[in-house]
Amino acid sequence: MRTPPATVALRGRLLWFIDDPATAGEAASLRQIEDGIVVVADGIIRACGPADEILARAGDGLAIIDHRPHLVLPGLIDAHIHFPQTRAIAAYGAELLEWLERHVFPEELRYGESAHAEPAARFFLDELLANGTTTAAVFCSVHPQSAEALFAEAARRNLRLVAGKVMMDRNAPAALCDTPERGYEESAALIGRWHGRARLRYAISPRFAITSSPAQLEAAGALARAHPDCPVQTHLAESLAEIRAVRRLFAEAGDYTGVYERFGLLGPKSLLGHCIHMSEREWGALNRAGAVAVFCPTSNLFLGSGLFDLAQARDPARPVRVAVATDIGAGTSYSMLATMGEAYKVCRMRGQALDPLAAFHMMTRGNAMALGLGDRIGALEPGREADIVVLDPRATPAMAHRLERAGGIVDELFTLITLGDERAVRETYVMGVPSKPRDRRPRAA
Ligand code: GUN
Ligand code: ZN
Questions:
Q1: For the packed helices 144-156 and 114-130, what is the interaxial angle rounded to 10 degrees?
Q2: Which of 229, 232, 262, 376 pairs with 27 at a CA distance of 20 to 30 A?
Q3: Against a cut of 0.85, is the pTM above it?
Q4: Each residue of 30-61: pLDDT tens digit?
């Protein structure tokens, strides 16, 4: 781990949110300083304001890193991603259940070996940081070694990460199955080792209803009750074939959401990937529980799972919290910028709007709040951890060319999500330390 200099000051065009523009409106939510400085000491934001004011107060002593004319924002956050699926991206031609069997399970089998999981963790975290993602909620494989490798590498880099080993005890290859007892014990041991250590949190991770027996879901619920500050992450109502299988396996549950409810897995710390095919009753249950629906647009398009209904999720009569995520390896980009570009298109397919400010809110402050980390990350406020991304809206010839017709910041943000990806990321700061990996060359075959 690199030691941060005691104090750094980042100068650029600052942008962050103090509220949700979708509900509070732009003026009450957006903070934008055209020439601003963020002062960071010991990894924490100490001050943030117009450059002239900060400079007048600080005198000459401030070591400034000048990022003008680029945008300086809170680090991007990915609310749902699978660590052992980096080599399962771009697996051709299948819907969810077949894709899991044919492509994902064989790949996840390899993560029982630390010698495989450790270098994979380095690649995975490099890829997140290259894309400006400073925090993610991560599914590991069923093997505790995979979580161990990821947590250790994240601790080495001082990253804020939420992760857990998946619990799965049926409908998968035997070598990928634990048991209700083993899943509980191994998860509890990982919680003891990693939850609250450095900047890490453990997420209790029953994979989904199809791969867990009732006894295992019972055990996952017991674990959640024993560790009420641990988030719970799983998948819900992603594909129609999946829902039919859940109905067969849990005939007594009225619907898919009811399965998680029955086992105590639906609460304000529950992160539910996908939520595409949901009844009104199910949305109501998520609303009452304060649970989070995680919108994974590139994944949903890639697998043909369906179109997330953002307006339905946010129905003011029973609003449900929404996060956004890549869902690598069904997702097709590590970039949260590209992910929001696809989220926009999914909303358009449903005749809905997702404006650029709302998109940037979702991948910063919105996702921070969804992960229960809103007091730590997601905004450029004094006291917050200095996880920061520097974005260049003119990073490529096509982006610069487009912005010759710029109408202001909103055009720049929309160009970033429509045309941008890791090429737009100039720097990624982790607690004030520059951490964007450099000189990553693809290895020769
Ligand atoms: N449902 C259960 N497991 C998975 C997974 O790994 N990816 C996706 N997209 N959906 C799932
Ligand atoms: Zn997933």
A1: 50
A2: 376
A3: yes
A4: 999 999 999 999 999 999 999 999 999 987 78
